[in-house]
Amino acid sequence: MALTKQKKDEIVAELGELLASSKMTVIAKYEGTTVKAMQELRRQAEENGTTVKVIKNRLVRKALESTESHKNADASDLTGMLMYAFNADDEVAPAQVLHEMAKTEKQIEFVGAFDAEGNRLSTEEVKALAQLPSREVMIATVINTLKAPVTNVTSGLSGNLHGLLDAVAAKQAA
Fold this sequence. Notes:
- By secondary structure, the chain is α+β, with helices and mostly antiparallel strands.
- Strands 2-3-1-4-5 form a five-stranded antiparallel sheet, with helices on both faces.
- Helix 1 packs across helix 3.
- It is built from six helices and five strands.
C-alpha cells in the first residue's frame, strides 16, 4: 500500500527529530534477515535505549536535508535494504546492539553512521565503536584504576600491622 503525501511528511518530520536528537545514527544492511530476528533486534535495542527503524532511503535523504545539523551529510550510498538505529543518550549503543545481532545474523552488516553533527563515519569506524566496552564498564574500569593505589597501601599497612601485633604477642608470651 502506497503512503500518502501527508504520511510521508509525518515520517520525514519524525526522522528529522530522531536525527537531531540522536548522538549516533548507525546504518546497516539487513537483506535476508528473518522477521523473528528483526523482532529480537528491536527488543534488544529498546532495552538499551536504541530505536531501530526500517525506512525508505528516499525519505531518509529528505529528513537529512530538513535537519540543520545533517543537511550537508553525504547520503550518496544510502541504497538497498537499510535499517537505521538511533540513540539520543549513548554514541556507542546503536553500533553495539547491531554488532551483537550480527554475530548470529550474518546478513546484518554495517554501512556507516552519522554522528550528532552530521559527520559521516565509515564502516570500519562503526565496527571499532561497536567493539568498545559499555559506558558502565569503562566507568568501573577508571574507578578501579584510580582506587588501586589506595587499596594497595591499605593492604600493605594492614599486613604490616598484623605482623607487628603478632611479634608483640610472641614477645609478651615469652
